[in-house]
């Protein structure tokens, strides 16, 4: 029986550029690095208040990485979307869509990670 989600894997061509994005732009913490038995280079990261990890994998023997439009994304909670957007843009990663207000009052936006993976940013509406 499945009991909890442990991690999600994204394969990339440029491991260090992608890890730098998740660390320096999104503020994720690098948990560990390893190499699989088949030679994949792996880096695990997590958001400060999350248990689930993101596994970034470089395995060039599988061929080029091709990320389809609107195929997948990761969603992260942010406390101040406007401030995050300014800081990310200053680091070369402007918002690719939004911000938009949802029917619940939350504010949503998207940013593109290296190699085309999409990141959703959600600033939840204040609870009353």
The CATH class turns out to be: Alpha Beta
Write down the CATH topology: 2,3-Dihydroxybiphenyl 1,2-Dioxygenase, domain 1
Number of helices: 2
In angstroms, what separates the terminal alpha carbons? 38 Å
Verbal overview:
The chain has two helices and eight strands. The protein is globular, with a radius of gyration of 16 Å. With 128 residues, the protein is α/β, with parallel strands linked by helices. The chain has a single domain (7-123), classed as 2,3-Dihydroxybiphenyl 1,2-Dioxygenase, domain 1 (Roll), CATH 3.10.180.10.
Give me the secondary-structure topology.
Elements: E1 7-12, H1 15-25, E2 29-35, E3 41-46, E4 53-58, E5 73-77, H2 81-90, E6 95-101, E7 107-112, E8 118-123
Parallel strand pairs: 1-4, 5-8
Antiparallel strand pairs: 2-3, 3-4, 6-7, 7-8
Short description:
The chain has helices spanning 15-25, 81-90, and strands at 7-12, 29-35, 41-46, 53-58, 73-77, 95-101, 107-112, 118-123. By secondary structure, the chain is an alpha/beta fold. The protein has one domain (7-123): 2,3-Dihydroxybiphenyl 1,2-Dioxygenase, domain 1 (Roll).
Q: Which terms summarize this structure?
A:
2,3-Dihydroxybiphenyl 1,2-Dioxygenase, domain 1, four-stranded mixed beta sheet, globular
């Amino acid at each position: 029986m499945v009991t909890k989600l442990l991690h999600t894997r994204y394969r990339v061509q440029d491991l260090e550029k992608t890890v730098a994005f998740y660390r320096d732009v999104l503020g994720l913490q690098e948990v560990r690095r390893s190499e699989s038995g088949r030679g994949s280079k792996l880096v695990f990261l997590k958001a400060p208040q999350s248990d689930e990890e993101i596994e970034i994998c470089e395995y060039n023997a599988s061929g080029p990485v091709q990320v389809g439009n609107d195929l997948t994304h990761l969603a992260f909670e942010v406390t101040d979307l406007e401030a995050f957007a300014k800081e990310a843009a200053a680091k070369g990663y402007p918002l690719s869509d939004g911000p938009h207000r949802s029917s619940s009052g939350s504010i949503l936006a998207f940013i593109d990670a290296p190699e085309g993976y999409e990141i959703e940013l959600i600033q939840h509406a204040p609870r009353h």
